[in-house]
Amino acid sequence: MHARRLITAALLPVFRRVFPEAQPCDLLFFGGAYDVCSPLPAKYGLDIGADTVYNILTGVSVGGSPLLESLESRGGFLNMTLSPAAVELLAASAAGRGAGMPERFELGANADCIKAGLLHAARLAPDAGYVPCDEGARRALLLTLFADTQHSRSIALKACETTLDNNRRRPILGAGAALACACAIDAWAYENTETR
After folding, report:
1. Residue 101 in 3-state DSSP?
2. Measured between alpha carbons, how far is residue 81 from residues 69, 94, 155 in Å?
3. Is 144:184 a contact under the CB 8 Å cutoff?
4. I need a surface site. Which of 20, 24, 40, 79 has the fewest CB within 10 A?
């Protein structure tokens, strides 16, 4: 949830220069092949030119680094890919919260089991990296950091489960990325108890 707020806070002021009524709900975090999408051009019926795309791409930063690696306008959507520096910042922030190994858990595709697998992968990782080179692992990391509903958490857990299976065959998760995913899953349980 923290990751979504950070991305939204960085993007909205820049978007509002082009789309004055842009709202947080205009940013979609589970948009297929891209990290973040927005239907703002379609919503306002605007064609976005290359100069506007460039201004948005270069006008958004987070932690002193560019937020976006790429931005394209296609079919009324703005499709965005986060820069490695932004992914590292989000993952490091999540990992800094820490997560504890569950005392007991049932095997399967549940949050505690996957969190335990991620913590184990973090201990065995050959490097400390926060940004996976593997696209599936990178996607799993971002989905886990962005998940804020039961449905999005299910999607993130499935992506983490697939990533853990792949990581057993060939190391694709750095310790930082695995820990960030585990900490995000741990934070979900904390958020659930706060809303009761």
Report:
1. coil
2. 6, 19, 19
3. yes
4. 20
- Write out the two tokens for 62: 């987070």
Give pTM, 2 decimals. Answer: 0.88
List C-alpha distances in Å: 78 to 2, 16, 26, 57, 152.
22, 14, 10, 11, 21
User: Low-confidence residues of the chain, pLDDT below 50?
Assistant: 193-196
- Amino acid making up residue 140: A
Question: For the purposes of burial, counting CB atoms within 10 Å of the CB of 61, is it exposed (0-12), middle (13-18) or buried (19 or more)?
Answer: middle
Over residues 40-61, the pLDDT tens digits come to 999 888 888 888 888 888 888 8
How does DSSP classify residue 48? P
Radius of gyration (Cα) for the chain, nearest Å?
A: 17
Query: In angstroms, rounded to a whole number, what is the distance separating the alpha carbons of residues 169 and 75?
Result: 38
Hey, what amino acid is at 109? A
In 28-119, where do the E strands start and end? 36-38, 61-62, 65-66, 68-74, 77-82
Instruction: Indicate the DSSP class of residue 126.
Output: S
Whether 92 contacts 107, CB under 8 Å: no
CA atoms of 85 and 9, how far apart (whole Å): 17
Looking at residue 195, what is its pLDDT? 39
